[in-house]
Amino acid sequence: MNRVYESGAAKKRKAKEEQKKIDKLPKITGFLKQDDITSKNDETPKGTADLQENVIQNESVDLNPSEQSELSVATQVLINHRTEEEAALRSTSEKIESYSTDIALWGEINEKLRLYWLQKNPGLCSNKDKDFSKSARIYQEGDKQKVRTLNKSLFQLKLQNNESRSRARETGSLENALTIQQKNEKNYWIQVLRRITDTIKFLASRGLAFRGENERFGSSQNGNYLGILELLSEYDPFLKEHINTYGNKGHGVTSYLSANICEEFIGLMGEKVLACIISELKKAKYYSFSVDSTPDIAHLDQLTFTVRYVTDQGPIERFLMFVPIEGHNAEYLTEVVVKFFKDNDIDINDCRGQSYDNASNMSGRYSGLQTRIREINKDKFDEFLEKAKSFTDICESESTSEPRNRRRSVKLTRFEGESEHTQFTGDEKLKIEIFYPIIDSLCSNLKTRKTAYETVNDNFKFFTALPNMTYEGIKECCEKLARKYDQEISAENLISECLHYKHYLRDTRKNEELFIPDLYLQLKKEFLTSTFPNIEISLRIFLTLMITNCAGERSFSRLKLIKSDHRSTMSQSRLNHLSLMSIESDLLKSIDFDELISNFAAKKSRKKVF
């Protein structure tokens, strides 16, 4: 079929009909409301007013020769006025600020100025609501002339519901729109991560397993982690919608519900708890530690670290971590302990006590771990070196040159023989070979512990008897304690403080039995630390000393619970993080993880699949 082309007359007739339809449409100026100009300074002559009306309407007009002449004169006046303003602007451009609120003084409009006013409200512009008729320009388009100028309506957009809003609002730029979108996405994932954090805290504090046989929602074998999230979603519409949208989508879809995100959060939360403990320890300054070892389910020896320090609420013991070891000799254990404190930026010179079991490699008198740590920190423990020197002096004073007598050996004759071996009954053999050695060892250890307790008691017990002590007694006890801790305590200042503290206790603790923990808490509660600094340090050192090594034994119970038969291949870092959150569950509940969640959501930006 051949194409039919319209003739030129038909096209002209069709164009005239369309133009008539357009002319019948209402003008856009009918929807705009013009403000009355009341200021005398803003009054313009008739010709200029006509120009303004024509500019506002932005329509093309046909002008006869007389009107053209009048318009040319008015336009020439405007151009001359504009030229004068430009000259004045050039003369004062050096005195004008870069971001003036006067539009006429903006000068060259660059990208920096545009970004500045996009972030500001146009209401700050001093001339936004003024008349801009003097900015009129006449443009020639063929045989027609158009007059355009700046109008205040250009600062606003007219919406369909007749609402006006600033076209230069801060949210109007593309960059800000993307920023708002990113912020909304971040807030969405923060809400998801908060629920994940609470679930991890619940499972870790109870030492429960996280994973199951699969990682699918709706499966009864998906483990405790996904199971608890499913339970929460039954009462949490947000989480339920999130699981329905992103759950079971597989790789490539961001959901933050995968095992990788869970493991990453376990590590971050464990590090946060450890950092909080170390921060408290450094703030307390003085501490004591306890180490002990036991094999785990994988037959790997784990060395547990427990520290004791004093906060404003009193003494507290915290578990730090398990360290795998490959040997049990004292030299190797010393290297492990020193390296542990160095890696965690803990000053070993602030250590004031140690606690071990009775193994010779731990508490051996001559070459055990305890003795080696004392050699590193020789000035901070008891008077080991002073006693050694005193023993040396005694040996030198008692040395003589008396002749040594050789013992005479006894030989059996022909008619003599060895006596028969004594025959023991079962009860006698039990007593001699088992019961008596145990009792001897027990008595020896009790005597050693008694000596240690008596030494500590002799150094600090005078604080509980201050109200009834004389000046000579206070001076003697203070000097003795200051000699032991010469770098922390000043003997002269301690004596002066004890004399004042004596009268303070008489007034506040009349006829009351005094205990060092109560005295320390009283100093903190009544803000007397700055008044009695040396007394506070002395009491803090006493409360820092380890009483038992039970904290290490309790950590082994958690070790057996967390690293069980079903989780024997657990990594060392995961074991430490879960053990720390389980043992220190009270601290875990008190820590605010909002900052961690926010940083995680900001750094772990993912691409969403739409």
Automatic annotation (TrEMBL):
<feature type="region of interest" description="Disordered">
    <location>
        <begin position="1"/>
        <end position="21"/>
    </location>
</feature>
<dbReference type="Pfam" id="PF05699">
    <property type="entry name" value="Dimer_Tnp_hAT"/>
</dbReference>
<dbReference type="Pfam" id="PF14291">
    <property type="entry name" value="DUF4371"/>
</dbReference>
<feature type="domain" description="DUF4371">
    <location>
        <begin position="168"/>
        <end position="368"/>
    </location>
</feature>
<dbReference type="InterPro" id="IPR008906">
    <property type="entry name" value="HATC_C_dom"/>
</dbReference>
<dbReference type="InterPro" id="IPR025398">
    <property type="entry name" value="DUF4371"/>
</dbReference>
<feature type="domain" description="HAT C-terminal dimerisation">
    <location>
        <begin position="529"/>
        <end position="587"/>
    </location>
</feature>
<protein>
    <recommendedName>
        <fullName>Zinc finger MYM-type protein 1</fullName>
    </recommendedName>
</protein>
<dbReference type="GO" id="GO:0046983">
    <property type="term" value="F:protein dimerization activity"/>
</dbReference>
<dbReference type="InterPro" id="IPR012337">
    <property type="entry name" value="RNaseH-like_sf"/>
</dbReference>
